[in-house]
Amino acid sequence: MGALPTLLLVFSIFRISIAVDTIALNQVVRDGEILTSAGGSFELGFFSPDDSNRRYLGIWYKKVSTMTVVWVANREIPLNDSSGVLKVTDQGTLAILNGSNTNFILWSSNSSRSARNPTAQLLDSGNLVMKDGNDDNPENFLWQSFDYPCNTLLPGMKLGRNTVTGLDRYLSAWKSVDDPSKGNFTYRLDPSGYPQLILRKGSAVTFRSGPWNGLRFSGFPELGRNPVYTYEFVFNEKEMYFRYELVNSSVVSRLVLNPDGSKQRVNWIDRTHGWILYSSAPMDSCDSYALCGVYGSCNINRSPKCECMEGFVPKFPNDWDMADWSNGCVRSTPLGCQNGEGFVKFSGVKLPDTRNSWFNRSMDLKECAAVCLSNCSCTAYTNLDIRDGGSGCLLWFGDLIDIREFNENGQELYVRMAASELGRSGNFKGKKREWVIVGSVSSLGIILLCLLLTLYLLKKKKLRKKGTMGYNLEGGQKEDVELPLFDFATISKATNHFSIYNKLGEGGFGLVYKGTLQEEQEIAVKRLSKNSGQGLNEFKNEVIYISKLQHRNLVRLLGGCIHDEEKMLIYEYMPNKSLDSFIFDKTRSMELDWNKRFLIINGIARGLLYLHQDSRLRIIHRDLKADNVLLDEEMIPKISDFGIARSFGGNETEANTKRVVGTYGYMSPEYAIDGLYSTKSDVFSFGVLVLEIVSGKRNRGFSHPDHSLNLLGHAWTLYMEGRSMELIDSSVGDIHDLSQVLRLINVGLLCVQCGPDERPSMSSVVLMLSSDSTLPQPKEPGFFTGRGSTSSSGNQGPFSGNGITITMFDGR
Ligand code: AMP
User: Fold this and answer.
1) Fewest CB within 10 angstroms: 157, 657, 694, 797, which?
2) Known catalytic residues?
3) Which domains does the chain have, with CATH numbers?
C-alpha cells in the first residue's frame, strides 16, 4: 500500500460555504464561495493549485482531507486574481467571467439547446450538470462535466465515445502536480478495429489495455471481481465506453491519469494513510507498447524479457542480442498464401494491437478460422468473447505487435503459419504449444498423427489411470478429487523401492523420495507414514487443495498412488530443493545474487496472491516459510506443503481455530495468540520470508551481540535509524539498484506490522514490488523481540524454537 504523492500540494481557497448545490439563471458563485453537493461528497469553487494568484474553477472531494481536485473548468486559462465569477447565462450555459470586466467570458460550457429555466447543479456523484428547471432526467441534461473529464474518472463516468454525436470522453493528465492545463498524456478509447483503451504521450502510444474479451480487457489479467468496484464495457451501434461503479458508495475510489503518464486506481483511507494505490498501469516494462517489436513477445519473468514467437526470428539479430528489440521479428518461412497454411495456437497472451482488426459477434471459432484462412492478409484470429467456452470472431490483418505473456488470464491467439512451420515444436519458453490445423493437410499426415497419438495415449495409460479420491473437508462437506493414479509397482520401481539413497527430505506427513519414471521424467514422491494420525489429515488436505490449483509459483501435483495401506502423492521434481537450503547456507547463498533473490520474492508474492485472490478457492496457506518454497531448475520458486491450508468461501475473510498450527518465527501475533487466521496472517509470514531472503538470516533463533531483538526487531531498528543497508546479506554480491533492496525491506516491514489491518494485501504487495510508488513508513512489527525477552506487541511464550511446524491446541 503506497501513500501516494497527492496531486495538489498547496491549495489555496477562501471559503464561504453556501449550503446549496444549485444556482439558477443569472445567479453566481463568486471566488471564495463554495457550492456543496446534496450528500456532502463534493464541493465546487475557485482554487489555486499552489500559492500563486492563478485561480481555477474546480470540483474536489469535500470529505477527503488532502484537497484533491477531480475536475477543472478553465484548466487552460486561469484567472490572475480573485475576481472570478461563475454564472448561469440565459443561453443555458455556464460561464466564468472576469469580475473586473464582466463582458469578458473566460470559459463557457456549450449547450445542445436552449432552455427556459437553465439551472446548474453539483450532483453528489461529482457531476456538475446544466438542466432545464427540475428536469432531472440525465438524457435531458443540457451539459454535464462528466462529458468533459480532466485527469480523473469518477464512478459512473463514461470513458469512451458516443458514436452518434461524436462526443469523445477521455482522460488527459495535468501538466504537473500544480498545473492543471493539459499535459502530455491522454487515456482514450480508440475506436479503430476493435476498441481498446490507449495511453498516449503526445501522439505516441505508450500502453494499451487490449480489447475487451467479455470479462476484462485482454491486457488487465488482474481485473476481476473485487470488493471495491464493479465495471462494464458497453459497445453497441450508439456507444462504446468503459465505466465502473462502487460496490459500497461510502468508499472513495478514483481512477487518475498522473502527469508522469501512469494511470492509477487509488482509494482514500484516512488522513494518516492518505490515498492508497489499488492498481496501476502500465504495470511493468512488458506493458511498454511494442517493447519486443512485431511478432516479439514479452514475459516479465524471463530474462531477456523479449523472445520471438515460435516460427519467427529476430529481424536484426545483433540488435536483438544487445536488447534492442524494437525492430521485432520476421517469419522463418514467409507466407505465400499457399495451400497447406494453417494456424498455431499461442496460449496465455495479451492479444496484439487491434487497431488493424475486424470482428464479427455471431461467428464461432471454426468459421473464424475459415474466414481468416480465406483472406491472404489475415494473420491471426481468436474468439471475441471468452465467456462460456468462447464466441465471436476477431481477425488481425498485417503484422502482430505488442504481445506479452501472462501467467494467468492470458488468452489464446491463433497465428497463421506457412505449411512447413506447422511441424515444429516449442512455443514461448516453458509453455505448451498446440497445433490447429485448418485447410488442406494430406490424409497421410492425419493418419500418422492419429497413430502417434494412440501410441502415446496407450503408453500413458499403462502408467497411470484417472482416479477419484473422496475426502471430507472441514465442516463435513464431502469433496471428490479427480487425480491421475499411478500404480504402486511403477512408483516403487521409480524410487528404487523407496531406497534411503533416494530420500529428499521429511515433511508434515512423512518421507519424500526422488523417483524417475520410465520416460526419464523426474518426480518427488511423498509417502504417508503408516502410523501417522495427523499425517493422514494433512495428506488429505494437500490432495484437496493442491489438485485444484495451478500456478507457475505453486508446486504441481502430478498424481497419487493408493495401495493397501500405502498412500502417496507424486509431484514434479524440484532439482534445487527448498529455499532454506540456499539462503541460510554460507556457500550456497552465494549462488543467489540480488537479482535472483528479487525474482524469488516476486514469484512467492505472485503465488500467494493467486492463493488469496485469484484461485477458485480462497486459500490461506498457514505455513509459509523458506522450507516450503521449492526451487525449480531455473530457480523459479514454487510454494509447497498445503498440509494445513484452509479455504474461505463467499465473503469470509477471517476464521478462528483452537488448533494453532504453523511455524515458530513465521506466525503472526493474532494467529499465535488468538488462533485468528486470515490472508493477513500469510502476509505476515511472507514479510518474515522477505526479511530472511534479504538478510540471509533466520528470524527464528536470530541473535545479535548488541540487543535481544529478533530479525524483525533488528530490521525495524535499522530502518528507523536509516541504516537498512546493514541488513543486506553480504553474500548477494554487487547490487546495481540499492533503492530496490531498500524498497523490499520496507515492504517486508509493512507485512510484519502487528495489526492484521495494517498489513497490505498481497495484491498491494505485488504492486509495490513492481512500481516506484512512495511507500508508507512501517509501524513496529508484531513479535519483534528475541527469545528470553518480552515483546510489547505480543507474547511468544508458548513456542519452542525447534524450527519445525508446531501444533498448539487451545491457542486461545
Ligand atoms: P514437505 O513435506 O513438502 O515439507 O517436503 C519435505 C522436503 O522434501 C522439502 O523440504 C524438500 O527438501 C523435499 N521436497 C518436497 N517436495 C519436493 C519436490 N517436489 N522436489 C524436490 N524436493 C522436494
Assistant:
1) 797
2) 623
3) 9-146 (2.90.10.10), 287-446 (no CATH), 485-572 (3.30.200.20), 580-809 (1.10.510.10)
